[in-house]
Amino acid sequence: MKASLVKGERGPRGGYKLGRSPNEIPVAEIIRTVDRQMNLEQCANDDCQHSLCISNALWESLGAEIESYLSNVTLADLAIKKV
């Protein structure tokens, strides 16, 4: 996945550039590439059994909503402050 976000060129005029158009790069993909996952599970109880925890279910649901939203926001949207 990283290769599709950026391309590197060697040499005196080398450097990095986007691998695709900014309109084709969702923010969620950037976050997943850097962080590997978007995990918001935040249980305050160290002895929690996550399958029974209401707090865990709420954080998991919120995380899914955030990922869905960020999947629809592109790098181009951020550049023009459309969000």
Structure description:
The protein has 83 residues and is mainly α. The chain has a single domain (2-79), classed as Arc Repressor Mutant, subunit A (Orthogonal Bundle). Helices cover 43% and strands 10% of the residues. The protein has 4 helices and 2 strands. The chain has helices at residues 2-5, 27-35, 54-71, 75-79, and strands at 6-9, 15-18. Strands 1-2 form a two-stranded antiparallel sheet. A hairpin with a 5-residue loop joins strand 1 and strand 2 (15-18). It is elongated, with a radius of gyration of 18 Å. The two termini are 24 Å apart. The mean pLDDT is 82.
The fold-level CATH name is: Arc Repressor Mutant, subunit A
Order of H and E elements: HEEHHH
First-to-last CA distance: 24 Å
Largest sheet: 2 strands, antiparallel
**Major sheet: arrangement of strands:** 1-2
Helix count equals: 4
| Average predicted confidence as pLDDT | 82
Number of structural units classed as domains: 1
Shape: elongated
The share of residues in extended strands comes to 5-15%
Report the CATH superfamily: Winged helix-like DNA-binding domain superfamily/Winged helix DNA-binding domain
Rg measurement, Å: 18 Å
Helix content: 40-55%
Query: Structural class from helices and strands?
Result: mainly alpha
Number of strands: 2
Tell me, what is the CATH class? Mainly Alpha
SSE inventory with pairings:
Layout: H1 2-5, E1 6-9, E2 15-18, H2 27-35, H3 54-71, H4 75-79
Antiparallel strand pairs: 1-2
